[in-house]
Amino acid sequence: xxxxxxxxxxxxxxxxxxxxxxxxxxxxxxxxxxxxxxxxxxxxxxxxxxxxxxxxxxxxxxxxxxxxxxxxxxxxxxxxxxxxxxxxxxxxxxxxxxxxxxxxxxxxxxxxxxxxxxxxxxxxxxxxxxxxxxxxxxxxxxxxxxxxxxxxxxxxxxxxxxxxxxxxxxxxxxxxxxxxxxxxxxxxxxxxxxxxxxxxxxxxx
Length: 205
Hints:
The protein is α+β, with helices and mostly antiparallel strands. Helix content is 24%, strand content 18%. The N and C termini lie close together (12 Å).
């Protein structure tokens, strides 16, 4: 984590109890398994609720802002899972870090300052946030390297950033399923290696 990263108290509303435990700690620890499973379960609860993919810009409440759960994008699956499971608000956390360290984030959208309505819903910003938190792991095509609750980022058709959460369920070859919204709403499916992977994150919270 960058020494200059100083999240505000507001960014941690509802998160204090969750932060007492590492989502992924020493192998075999109960707290690690519990928090990872909570994140996976929270993502799975979105299946059948979020029914469509909608990338439209929306003005959100702050903190804990969200669009109607019937719709969303790939990042919303991750945002909602960590918020529902652990009380962690990526909207506020990313906004706090971007306000303090704006130059560390991508300039893909021509912005001159943070926008709390959309910044956390952009894959490159989330990837930057997790790298700054020390959550980055090597990207491999070895299924055994991916654990439940891990976050992946990928590039679809070489141009569209994508993200989702690794499931605790596997296909017949032992490859973990993923929970994501790549069109048509949140679903759980065998798609971890369908597109070029660009990031692997295990967020310790």
